[in-house]
Amino acid sequence: MIQINQKSIRVGYTSAILCAILVGSISTASKPVLVNTNPIMYGALVYLLAALSSVPLSYKVKGFQVKARDWPLVLAITISGSILAPTLFFTGLEQTTASDTAILSNSEMIFTVLFALIFFKEKLKLRGYLAVVLVLTGVFIVTTNLQFSDFLDLKKQGNLLIILSMALWALDNNISKIAAHRVDISRLVQLKGLIGGSVLLIFALAIKIPLGITEWEIPNLLLVGLVGFGIALYLFLHSLRRIGTVKTMLIYSTGTVFGLLFASIFLHEKIGTYQIPAIALMLTGIYLVTKENHTVEKVHQD
Fold this sequence. Notes:
Elements: E1 2-3, H1 6-23, H2 26-30, H3 39-53, H4 55-58, H5 71-95, H6 98-104, H7 107-118, H8 126-144, H9 157-182, H10 185-206, H11 218-243, H12 245-252, H13 255-266, H14 275-290, E2 295-296
Helix pairs in contact: 1-11, 1-12, 1-13, 3-5, 3-10, 3-11, 5-9, 5-10, 7-9, 7-12, 8-14, 9-11, 10-11, 11-12
């Protein structure tokens, strides 16, 4: 185990918060586009744009900087996080509502934390586990407002696809933590977007899926691809490398809060009665986790 310097910790927390802000708009921005665009084609375009967003960040990186032993990691996170997960996610979003999608997207945090604690041996102190409980409680209240409907009905195919995509992204998150120590982060974003987007595009063209993007939907596509996935992924990987999977996901879960704020400001939707104290719970949990001593597993790069 090695101690992380305070500047690196601050960068990790800042990156996680900015990432949460950016991803908060993905479901809302994507839903209108999926009316005319096939989910596979949309996923291909989004990830190719994500790869494009990393070009200014990776221009100083000479070559691919990926050793032979690291390609299995790159391919694993590309297949799970850039091919299978977005295909299931956008297909599910097409079949369900944006609000249900935002609710079910919180399962990514649960899957990620469980995978990190059980399979990847990430550890927290007692205060950290208390933070997990507080944040999960806050997420649950924020997303349901204690009004339970049928959004968890697994007979709804769209909802089931969203949950499956979150499990795949959770696996991607944990493997990405390892990869981010071995491969330049901007290059990792570029490879994930380029390989994943290209595979989806080739498949979409092979089965003759039309482009289906109108000029009015281009701003939404650019927002989701360049910012919601590209820049957000870059920030997310920086956070994983600096503060670990569990702490990153705790902060990342506040995307639900930002989603509520965006909906209130731009769509004039009301914030529920129970959601304000729930947000306070989440912020308390995040405060607790930021007070933990930070250590990360040393990753050998020989």
